[in-house]
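Researcher: Can you fold this with succinic acid in place?
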Amino acid sequence: MTMDTQHFDGVLVIGGGLAGLSAALAAAPRRVRLVSPAPLGEACSSSWAQGGVAAALSPEDSPALHAADTVAAGAGLVDPGRAALLAAEGPGAVRRLASFGAPFDRDRQGEFLLSREAAHGRARVARVGGDRAGQAIMAAVIGRVRRSAHVEVLEGWRLSGLLQDSLGAVCGALMERNGVLTAMRATAVILATGGVGGLYAETTTPSALLGEGLAAAALAGATLADPEFVQFHPTALDIGRDPAPLITEALRGEGAWLVNAAGERFMTSQHPDGELAPRDVVARAIHAEREAGRGAFLDARSAVGAHFPKAFPTVFEACRSAGLDPGVAPVPVAPACHYHMGGLLTDADGATTLAGLYAAGECASSGVHGANRLASNSLLEAAVFGARAGRAASRRLGAPRPLAQTRKLSRLPEEDLQALRKAMSREAGVIREAAGLERLLSRLDLLGARFPDAGPLIAARLIAECALERRESRGAHFRADHPEAAAEARRTLVRLEAGSLSRKAA
Ligand code: SIN
């Protein structure tokens, strides 16, 4: 490949989801170059979010209650200070999105209409057009970014590595477009590359999301936190499609039930909150029904019925595209990879352990999700911590030094990627155990020998190795061979050193 070098005096934001866009806007008046692998709004999970944005917006609610629910959902691994920060900045973040033009649903008095989702003690999810939150919020924020003179948008560029100077500080990124590599030097870099859904055969996220940000940061020596914590959404529409359409949890908030093929409700015997139990509990219950051959279906006939097309247009359209009408019959559901709680360890302003490198959104581990993210906290986190990272990165001053050698990510051939996805779903999915994780790691070793520095393999190894090491069950990480939680909740902190993961004290 040929290589071009560009010098950019400003902040390089990599990723066009809500975190990247929020960072780009908040970095003003500093110049920002926003690079995205796809046209803005496409191939990013933010646009696919259905539920909405969680924030304490009603008089019956408070940031303290929101923070407490966030901490409780995270099963001992949420940083309470960060949860408090997220919840305190939540209402302002929603109002900011509204000021950009996001058309949140309102009541007659103009107040936000709020839904209740699993593990929230209050109705606090601000929604748009029923289940169109992600799409509508992103359209508004993209419009704002395109109108912002300080932001230059480059679409169709993929991350291939991070540039580091002779002292190890990150000073740009190696980007690839149409087979041409470009070294983009910048004063600061913000990774907002999203999650890892594409590493799994069943995912509710765009399948292009392969953990490249994690992999590039790992190769550069950044510390990563809790990579084993992958959230599986309980209700993906099970129609054999890749990615699988999401069926928003808000439907269960409206009273939809989960039943097996015999029409029996199975959540009532599993958890006092029934269908609104924490996401991991519901995902495991659905997995168990399916494994036992009883099947799992969402029955929204009496909760939504004929209102479906208007109340949940996205879910309705997905069902109709498969010849199903969720208003008149239960629809088949299965758990699917939905969100990565792990990521680059960051402080409250998105700074990673490498000077010059910031991270926000799903590729970051800001400390607010712990072992299990609370529903609809992801768009909120992207907006709040994206903006914090943008402001912090905008303050960084450049110190031009010679470049060190860059480790470039390689690609995995399609056939091997598809085999990897199946293996990840089987061995590092809803239920894990040592034997399966060891099989997965042996497969990763073989693939790694053929494709060294392949981004998907590095990201998958981080998940698999840390899942094997965590000999307990906590939140979204369930080990059949260690079904109890350890007495002490500990975060995983790891770095890649000389090709192997080295653990740091949490
Ligand atoms: C959903 O609408 O069920 C997903 C929301 C989320 O992932 O937080």
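Model: Folded with succinic acid in place. The CA atoms of residues 121 and 190 lie 34 Å apart.
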